[in-house]
Amino acid sequence: MDSDSALLANLRLGQHRFTGLLDQLHLAILLEDENRQVSFVNQAFLDLFNIGLSATEFASIPCEVSAAAAKEAFVEPELFLQSVEARLAEKRAVKGELFSLKDGRWLERHYYPIFIDSDYRGHVWVYTDVTDKIRMHRALKRQATTDLLTGLANRRRLEAELRRQLHIARRYERPLSLIIGDIDHFKQVNDRFGHNTGDQVLRAVAARLNGVKRIADFAGRWGGEEFLLILPETDLTAAMRLAERLRLSVASEPVSAGGLSVTMSFGVNQCSPDDDMQTAVAAADHWLYAAKDRGRNQVAACLPPTLAT
Predict the structure, then answer these.
(1) What is the DSSP code (8-state) at residue 153?
(2) Torsion angle, CA of 186/221/249/279, rounded to 10 degrees?
(3) Does the structure show a pLDDT above 50 at 7?
(4) Among candidates 303, 269, 274, 306, which has minimal Cα distance to 286?
């Protein structure tokens, strides 16, 4: 074997080993030349997109055709195609683009242009299935912002939403109201029936409140047996009507399988332009305690003169 033949054999061996390595990776890789002809595709790429072709068969298909076919797997097919064209036009590396598929999976994509001596020679697409990573991230986010017992928003999430809504109401001069509800004599429920029954009551009350509130309203567990509702685009009159419906929904039927019934008291406040989170909640809390002082199982608020008479 002469030196040229030996060099060619070594190059082929090196290429074979390299492509073998790429086939073993969990990364889906597609290499295209400057004319968008497939130079290399690994098995992981074919498997990721459920392409029932060999690498050789796939390479014979024009890239425009394969991309047009692949787009149907994406939740936003036109956005996928537009992103492909944008990357090819810009010819600069872009990492970490996320795409959702119709089958529920999430893909992360990296694009790398190839330049040799400043000449553009093609590009590499690298896809990774990050479905488990996305789901775990969302689960952790839910845990951080959700009350695990009731499934409603927790206090941290409520505080963030209230700050946001106060900003919107102030900026656009729109009404915003709060309702705080507290389960009457809840300590007696725990003391007499036990904490398991108390937890059952909290879950049932949360479900009632969540079922009565409007779509735009934001409900959560403020702490203990207290619940807070944030009502965008709602004045005091409308907020009081909603609070009364909430009160009736809890008092009208037993909240446990054993027939246990509870009632709730509610305080209502329409936020003023000067309110921050503390003052807005404190005003609603004030009227909650006023409702309790007046005998519980009722709604209290600072009525404007037209409603007080």
Answers:
(1) B
(2) 100
(3) no
(4) 269
Beta strands in 130-225 (DSSP E): 176-183, 218-223
What is the spatial distance between Cα 29 and Cα 110, in angstroms, rounded to a whole number?
10
Q: Hey, CA dihedral for 263, 193, 220, 226, is it positive or negative?
A: positive
Structure token pair of residue 119:
């000449």
Rounded to two decimals, what is the model's pTM?
0.65
Phi, psi of 153 (to 5 degrees): -60, 145
The residues that bridge with 32 in the sheet, in sequence order, are 38, 123
68 shares its domain with 166: no
Residue found under tokens 């934001």: 218
pLDDT band at 13 (very low <50, low <70, confident <90, very high): very low
Query: Of 108, 135, 162, which one is at a domain's C-terminal end?
Result: 135
Would you say residue 265 has pLDDT above 70? Answer: yes
For residue 21, what pLDDT is reported? Answer: 53
Tell me the pairing of strands 28-33 and 218-223: unpaired
The CATH number assigned to the domain holding 125 equals 3.30.450.20
Q: Write out the H or E segment, with its range, that includes residue 289.
A: helix 277-293
- With tokens 């074919």, the residue in question is 46
Q: Sorting pLDDT into bands at 50, 70 and 90, what band is 22? A: low
| Catalytic annotation, pick one of 78, 161, 225, 253 | 225
Sorted by sequence, the CB contacts under 8 Å of residue 303 that are 6+ apart come out as 236
Q: Which domain holds residue 204?
A: 146-308
Which of 135, 156, 173 is where one domain is finished? 135
Rounded to 5 degrees, φ, ψ at 39 are -95, -30
* 19: pLDDT strictly greater than 50: yes
The answer to whether 209 touches 181, Cβ cutoff 8 Å, is yes
108 noted as active-site residue: no
